[in-house]
Amino acid sequence: MKIRQGFVSNSSSSSYIIGIGKLIDETKFTEYCKSNHIDYEILTVKEIIEKSGWDRCYREKDKSFYNEAFDGNKVSIKIDPTKFEDKYIKVNYGEDIQEDPDGDTNYDIDCDDFEPIGQTIFGIGHNTGVQSFQYSYGAGRNG
Length: 143
What we know:
It is built from 3 helices and 8 strands. It is an alpha+beta fold and 143 residues long. It has one domain. It has a 5-stranded antiparallel beta sheet with strand order 1-3-7-2-8. It starts with a strand and ends with a strand.
């Protein structure tokens, strides 16, 4: 199930946050995301394993679920491929990077650049219905 509440850019210069985690309380997590306008996807282990093509997110050799950004940045966690009903979350957030008036683009970012939504994504954890939440962020040219 994908839930999109905001705009994700197709700009050629973007900053992003990617994240994944094991879902332990779906109600708590979905309420947190709705109140903070976070886009997310909930997948069972079976759905993770069966995805194919560009949206594939399972690596069989180390039995891991992963989320990858346009620049190759990746986060991953181990899953038990026999527990088909276990649920995991996938979070993606992106925004345009504004070029300076002289035409230069600064790709140096930190967590503060994602206020306020970034801080809510970085805050996903056990008290929001997710355990083992892994995230990464970055910026660059995606086109």
